[in-house]
Amino acid sequence: MLIYLPTKVLPALTGLITTPILTRIFLPEEYGDWALALGVTDFLFAIAMSGIGTAALRFFPAYKAKDNLNGFFSNVLAMTAAVAGGMGILAAVGLALFRGRIDAALFPLLRISILIFAVNSFYTIFMEVLRIQQKSGLYTRLNLTNYYGGLILGLIFVLAFGLRIEGLMYGTVLVHFFAIPLLIRTTMRGVRVGANLLDSASMATIWAFAWPLTFGNTAF
Questions:
Q1: Distance of alpha carbon 17 from its chain centroid, rounded?
Q2: Mean pLDDT in runs of 10 for the chain (220 residues)?
Q3: What's the CA gap between 123 and 137, in Å, rounded?
Q4: Is residue 57 within 8 Å of residue 66, measured between CB atoms?
Q5: Who's near 38: CB < 8 A, 6+ residues apart?
Q6: Which pTM was predicted?
Q7: Residue 122, Cβ neighbours under 10 Å: how many?
Q8: If both were cysteines, with which of 9, 19, 138, 217 could 50 make a disulfide (CB 3.0 to 4.6 Å apart)?
Q9: Within 13 A of 110's CA, how many CA atoms are on the CB side?
Q10: Which burial class, exposed, middle or buried, applies to 13 when counting CB atoms under 10 A from its CB (0-12, 13-18, 19+)?
Q11: Which letter does DSSP use for residue 135 in this model?
């Protein structure tokens, strides 16, 4: 477990490093809106995807033992697309319905938070697979890049291009977009996916494992 220690310790220090910087750059209202928008992202992920991410970690060894990683990735990615897509649509509809009751400065940040949720859903699934494949070096680098690279890129948008809080959030989105192709190439080497490989019974088993965890994570 020591190989994953940097991914636990360094992200935990992020707040100590970034809070003094961000509070000097942004107004208290902007900083508060950013925290609210990130809270929405975390809530959407907890209620929609957290259980599936843990299920991927749980079922990967079983599929690998059966030499059926094609089926594993087909099932898990289809579930991710369906659940994340459905939740993203519901969130977008909710925003549209309650737009008049949402602060004008916060509303565009909430739209970006839905985008972050969508890309983070796929990013997390692949990171869990990378973890169970014991590719600790890449896992650590990507985790740290996610925390610090997104922040650095976001600050570049803010300081160089005049964006405000949305610049920080776009930095997070872009870091995920850059990481996902690398994760696909690394975790799915030699694997093919397709609709013909979907197995409804296996997907039901994965979902039966995932949904109780989702309730627990959401409550937490």
A1: 22
A2: 56 72 91 95 94 94 95 96 96 96 96 96 95 89 88 93 94 94 95 95 95 87
A3: 17
A4: no
A5: 113
A6: 0.90
A7: 19
A8: 217
A9: 19
A10: exposed
A11: -
Query: 187: closest CA among 8, 3, 60, 51?
Result: 60
Q: What is the pLDDT of residue 6?
A: 58
Q: Answer for the pair 116, 42: CB distance below 8 angstroms, yes or no.
A: no
Residues in the chain: 220
Burial class from Cβ neighbours inside 10 Å (0-12, 13-18, 19+) for residue 195 reads: exposed
Whole-Å CA distances, 216 to 48, 51, 109? 12, 9, 27
Using alpha carbons, select from 113, 92, 111 the residue that is nearest to residue 45.
113
Task: Write phi, then psi, for 209 (nearest 5 degrees).
Answer: -75, -35
The dihedral built from the CA positions of residue 15, 17, 23 and 26, taken in this order, carries a sign that is: negative
Interatomic CA distance for residues 128 and 149, integer angstroms: 20
Angstrom distance (rounded) from CA 118 to CA 8: 23
Residue indicated by tokens 């959407």: 44
Q: Rounded to a whole number, what is the distance in angstroms from the first to the last CA of the chain?
A: 24
Q: How far apart are CA 7 and CA 139, in angstroms?
A: 8
Q: Tell me, what's the pLDDT at 8?
A: 61
R_g of the chain, CA atoms, integer Å: 18
